[in-house]
Amino acid sequence: MNSTIQTILAHRSIRKFTQQPIDSNQLDTILQAGLAASSSSLLQVVSIIRVTDKEKRQRLAQFAGNQAYVENAAEFLVFCIDYQRHASINPDVQADFTELTLIGAVDSGIMAQNCLLAAESMGLGGVYIGGLRNNAKHVDELLGLPENTAILFGMCLGHPDQNPEVKPRLPAHVIVHENQYKTLNLADIESYDQKMHDYYANRSSNQKQSTWSQEVTTKLAGESRPHILPYLNEKGLLKR
């Protein structure tokens, strides 16, 4: 097993950081790794906003649900769909197709994962912050995003000040299908639920008595940020 695979398999979300800054050369390498990511048709429809202003960091932490590590991490990056560049080149650009929003979301995820893996390969840690979408319009206004550009998620990066356990994932045979979709075997979920129950009960922090099925069905049983569609529509995206 090479060092790249080891880095990937050792991933943990880090939510507590030391006060040590990230070296400028390291940050540049992280960003260059992101820029090297695959891009659909080389459209390059992602923008990254590096937030260094302390007051803005504080407000972003509040907007994201009072997540203190947004404010305290050495670096905080915000990933955005961005078709404003293209519209500036040619006003005939039609950025409001659903397919183009999907491309922006997919490419942002690919770019962000490149950044995170690069950081983790240097001994740094990080965590994705989807909570920015709790208050998408406020975040958008704070960062001054133009038309055809919208926030997706943030990323904290820094030197880890915790060593959490690796969280178990569903087994590959549940996720990976061959040639066609196969019917779910609920016994596989029961086995995984027991593994997650043990993980939650025995991990070093935030212990709880729960299973994966309980967690995800609770999450999916109610509304999921219904304000996101009108937000994207207002930005000129996801209209048709």
UniProtKB/TrEMBL annotation:
<dbReference type="InterPro" id="IPR016446">
    <property type="entry name" value="Flavin_OxRdtase_Frp"/>
</dbReference>
<keyword id="KW-0560">Oxidoreductase</keyword>
<keyword id="KW-0285">Flavoprotein</keyword>
<feature type="domain" description="Nitroreductase">
    <location>
        <begin position="9"/>
        <end position="159"/>
    </location>
</feature>
<dbReference type="InterPro" id="IPR029479">
    <property type="entry name" value="Nitroreductase"/>
</dbReference>
<comment type="similarity">
    <text>Belongs to the flavin oxidoreductase frp family.</text>
</comment>
<dbReference type="InterPro" id="IPR000415">
    <property type="entry name" value="Nitroreductase-like"/>
</dbReference>
<protein>
    <submittedName>
        <fullName>Oxygen-insensitive NADPH nitroreductase</fullName>
    </submittedName>
</protein>
<dbReference type="Pfam" id="PF00881">
    <property type="entry name" value="Nitroreductase"/>
</dbReference>
<keyword id="KW-0521">NADP</keyword>
<keyword id="KW-0288">FMN</keyword>
